[in-house]
Structure formats: C-alpha cells, structure tokens
Specification:
The complex is a heterodimer of chains A (113) and B (118). Chain A is built from no helices and 11 strands. With 113 residues, chain A is mainly β. In chain A, strands 2, 4, 5, 9, 10 and 11 form a 6-stranded mixed beta sheet that branches. Chain A has a 5-stranded antiparallel beta sheet with strand order 1-3-8-7-6, with no helix packed on it. Chain B has 118 residues and is an all-beta fold. Chain B is 0% helix and 51% strand. In chain B, the strands form 2 sheets. In chain B, strands 2, 4, 5, 6, 9, 10 and 11 form a 7-stranded mixed beta sheet that branches. The chains are: A mainly beta (113), B mainly beta (118). At the A-B interface, β4 and β5 of A face β9 and β10 of B.
Chain lengths: 113, 118
C-alpha cells in the first residue's frame, strides 16, 4: 500500500533555531517528492520538488534531502522565524507522475519567541 | 509563479441548500484539476479528479450525486455541494495541474474554501 509517514507529528522550537522534519514513504514506483507548507486555513504552498536523481534541493532557508534507496526525505529549516509556524506536508507522486498524490499527515511546527 | 484561485474563500449556508465553489487557474492551462477535503488537524483527502471536457473521477466513498463537479474549460472547475448537511462542513481545496510542466506534473493548490453548514 502506498503510504507516506511523517515525523514528528508536532514540534515546538525557539525562534532562530534550526529543525529537521522527516518523511518516509513506501510509494512505488516513485516519480517525485514534494514538500509543502500549509498555513492554518490556507492551501498548501510548494517549497521543493525532487525527482529520483536529486539528493538535495534548497529554497531559501528550506533544504530538502532525498534518499531514494532508503525512501526517506527530510526538510531542514534554518534560522527559524515566527512565520515558519505552519504544517509541513510531504507528498509523493508514484507511477508515471500522472497519478494522484500520496499525502503525509504533516508535521505541525510552532516557532515561539 | 502559477496561481490558483478559489471563490468564495468562506461560505455559510443552511442545511438542505446547495453551494458552488469555483476553482480557477489564473496564468496557466489545466486539463486536470483535483478537489480535496480537509478536516481539522488532518491531511488533505482527495475527493475527485476533474478532467476538462469529461466526467470527473470520484474516489471511493465520495458521492458523485452530492458533490457535482464540472470542468468546462481549461481554467475553471466547479464543485457544487448539493443538499448540504452539517457533516459537509469542511475546508475544500482545489489544485490544478499545469499541463506545461511536463513530466513533473506540477500541481498548484488554491487557497481553500471554508464551508460551514448550519
């Protein structure tokens, strides 16, 4: 069964600190993996998208890694800001890519002053 | 970047009435759009896949006669919740697949519509 598991479920960190969110998936065959940021009451916004051949991709203070062999991905947030408080969702596309996305349940990040 | 809009952003309706939600891709063409529902503190759940000019494909457990989907153009899909009940209250999000994104099949999400049925 295609699944995406994220950890931790929730995380609280101090402003300015770094954090890393984890994503494990069992989707096969694999097409690409995306990280989204979803603010409360808003739609998800794409942070990164990685295909099978990509190991690392950065978007400002966000750096995503992908290990296609172990089927793991991480999202590292550097120098966190209060505005980083949101849910971070890992989403995997399987098959040819033209298939429904498989969503993780997300990690709820709270950045406090 | 690509933008997807939804209208309305929130709506309150009485039980038994119907509500229409619009999803538009503003600066790209989308032959495929998706409708999701999200309950508090849960992930997005795919309801249906909408293809321009053809019937929508509904996920198991989603009533096609209750959630009417129309995708009449390459930039517009609508979801109509018919005979709404309080249990239909949820956050509805659409996404649009950019047909020009090639093998990445890039999807862009709308900002969501909060539906409250009283």
């Amino acid at each position: 069964k295609n699944q995406v598991e994220q950890s931790p479920q929730s995380l609280i960190i101090l402003e300015g600190k770094n954090c890393t969110l984890q994503c494990n998936y069992t989707v096969s065959p694999f097409s690409n993996l995306r990280w989204y940021k979803q603010d409360t009451g808003r739609g998800p916004v794409s942070l990164t998208i990685m295909t099978f051949s990509e190991n690392t991709k950065s978007n400002g203070r966000y750096t995503a890694t992908l290990d296609a062999d172990t089927k793991q991905s991480s999202l590292h947030i550097t120098a966190s800001q209060l505005s980083d408080s949101a849910s971070y969702i890992c989403v995997v596309t399987g098959g040819s890519g033209n298939t429904p996305l498989v969503f993780g349940k997300g990690t709820r990040l709270s950045v406090i002053a | 970047g690509a933008v997807v809009s939804q209208h309305p952003s929130w709506v309150i309706c009485k039980s038994g009435t119907s509500v229409k939600i619009e999803c538009r891709s503003l600066d790209f063409q989308a032959t495929t759009m998706f409708w999701y529902r999200q309950f508090p503190k849960q992930s997005l759940m795919l309801m249906a896949t909408s293809n321009e000019g053809s019937k929508a494909t509904y996920e198991q457990g989603v009533e096609k006669d209750k959630f009417l989907i129309n995708h009449a153009s390459l930039t517009l899909s609508t979801l109509t919740v018919t005979s709404a009940h309080p249990e239909d209250s949820s956050f509805y999000i659409c996404s649009a697949r950019d047909q020009a994104s090639g093998s990445l099949y890039e999807q862009y999400f709308g900002p969501g519509t909060r539906l409250t049925v009283t």
